[in-house]
Amino acid sequence: MSLAPRVVVVHRRTELEELLERHGTRGQARFFLSTRGRDLAEVEERYEAQQAALRSVEAAIPVDWRRGRVERGDLSRFLFADDDVVVSVGQDGLVANVAKYLAGQPVIGVDSSPGRSVGVLVPHRAEAVADLLHHPGAVAEHTMVRALTDDGQELHALNEVYVGHPSHQTARYELDAGAAEHQASSGLVVASGTGATGWCRSLWLERHSSLVLPAPTAPDLAWFVREAWPSPATATTATEGLLAAGTTLRLRVESERLVCFGDGIEDDRLDLTWGQQVTVGASERHLRLVVG
C-alpha cells in the first residue's frame, strides 16, 4: 500500500513576528516604528494576509494526505522526500530560497500579498491550491546554477551564484572564461534566466550591456564581474558573457579566503581558500514550477 502524498508548506517569518521577537510587545513595536515614520497597522495587515493565505492553503490539503510545514530559516535542516509537493506561501524570493534544497519536486508558488511582489514565481492565489493539488496542469522547468569545488563540494541556486570576498571587498582570483585572466574585483555573479530579473538585471542595466539575457527556462547563463580593477597584475578583459548549455566558468582563488553562496543566503555557503578552484555552470537540477 503506497503512502498518501505529502504537501510541504514553506513560509517565512513576517516583519511583525521579527519585531515582536526583538521588542517583546506590540506597544514597544509600535513605538519603534513610529520613531521611523512607520505605522504598525501596515505591518499587522501583511501579517494577517499571510496567516489567511496559510490557513487557506492548509485547509485545501485533503484530510487523507500527509502534510508538513517549514519556515525559511529551517530549510537547510529539513528533509524533503522525492514525492513531496511543495507549496511556497510568500513572495518570489521564497521560491528561490527553497529551490536549492529540492530535487525535482513540483512547487506551487502562492502570493500571500498580491501587489507587493512581481509574482513571477508565485503566480497563484491561495484559493487555487485545492484544484492545483489534484490538477497541477503545466509545469515550467527553470534552469538553476551550480558551483562545484575541486574537493567535491557543491552548491545549487535558482537565481544566481556569487563568488567573492565575504564582506564584498576586493577579491583576487584567476578567471578562465575561455582564456585565463588574473582579476581583482568585487566578485563574480553567474545568473540563470530566472535571476535575470533580479541582481543580474541591475548589473546588466548599470553597465548598459548589450548581452541578451536568457529566459527562465533557457539552458544559458549570464555572468558579470563586479567592479574589475585594472593593474599591472590584473586585467579587465573578461567581465561579462553568456554560458551556453554545457559550458562553465572556472575560478582559482588567489586570496586568503573567498566565499560562494547562492540566492543571497550567505549563511549557507562554500568557503574557498588560496589555490582552490570552483567551476560554475548550469545545474542538472531544475525548479519544477507549477504554472497551471
TrEMBL record:
GO function terms (MF aspect): NAD+ kinase activity
Biological process terms in GO annotation: NAD+ metabolic process
InterPro entries assigned to the protein according to its UniProt record, in alphabetical order: ATP-NAD_kinase_PpnK-typ_C, NAD/diacylglycerol_kinase_sf
Origin: domain of life: Bacteria
Family annotation (PANTHER family): NAD KINASE 2, MITOCHONDRIAL, PTHR13158
Designated name of the protein: NAD kinase
